[in-house]
Amino acid sequence: MKTMEATAKARTGKVNWVLFNPKTYATILYLLLSLPLGIIYFTVAITGLALSIGLTPIFIGIPLFFGVAKLLNGIVNFEQSMIRQILGLPTPPPVSYTYNRQSEAGQNWLMRMVRGFDGGLFIRNLLLILQRFVTGIVFFVIMVTVISLGLGFIALPVVHIILMNEMQLDILENTLFSYFHIDWTYNQQYMLYVGIGLVLFWIALRVVNGLMQIQRRIMYVDEPYQQPSVPVESQIHASAQSQYYDYSEDQPTQGMMQPAYREL
Q: What's the gap between Cα 154 and its chain centre?
């Protein structure tokens, strides 16, 4: 029941009323930081893997490799949690690993790292960080372009007035209005440009939220909501109970074959 509720809440991560929604501007800040963060993630991943492979002959690279794998997992989890916080998604239910920690209590740190290593998860995290590097650059360029286009039209009247007063430069002299011989005053042109700028800015905000939804799917943010979280202890108890019931079903047949009293 809780899993179904979490799934229903996860589907409501889309942003409505983009112009007045704080999630929109949090998304803009996230996409602005995506470029430097993507470069940092990519540098850390490549440097860590190169050092671990190069230092393998002197046995320092093996624990370094497992440490890099743990660091990549932490980076992916950090990105997923940051996207959930921005979109207002519910926190996925935690999974308990008490049994695994008790069983690994007597092992050294290297064996614990080896037993906790998942090759498929490591490859997925590495690919996600590489994709994060590429999407960070692409999304940054798209967002800056569309937002600058809308804000440029909105600020065009102010820029024109400043240039006319300070430098006697008329940037609206050779426009479509003069080409088609449309005799519009500057105030009428200002209103048209501001209207176009507001429409473009609204479209830009929609594009920004669309990029965030794409990033949400790329980083597998909805994955914990799509699979039920069953604690390890519950699985152990369920298997133990099933073995107990299988054993108890065989016991009555053996007990019925024994006589209730001894014949003389």
A: 33
Q: How far is CA 71 from the centre of its chain?
A: 16
Both tokens of residue 252? Answer: 């009555």
Q: Report residue 107's pLDDT band, with 50, 70 and 90 as the boundaries.
A: low
pLDDT tens string 197-236: 999 999 999 999 999 999 999 998 988 777 654 444 444 4
CA dist., res. 64 & res. 77, Å (int): 20
- pLDDT attached to residue 115: 77
The single residue listed with the structure tokens 């370094």 is 64
CA distances 53 to 48, 72, 117, 150, 199, Å, are: 9, 16, 17, 48, 53
Is the pLDDT at 173 greater than 80, yes or no? Answer: no
Q: Token pair of 204, please?
A: 């830009």
The Cα 215–Cα 217 span in angstroms is 5
Rounded CA-CA distance 182/162 in Å is 24
Closest CA to 21 of 86, 115, 90: 86
Please report, as a single letter, which amino acid is at residue 165.
Answer: N
* Cβ neighbours of 188 (radius 10 Å): 12
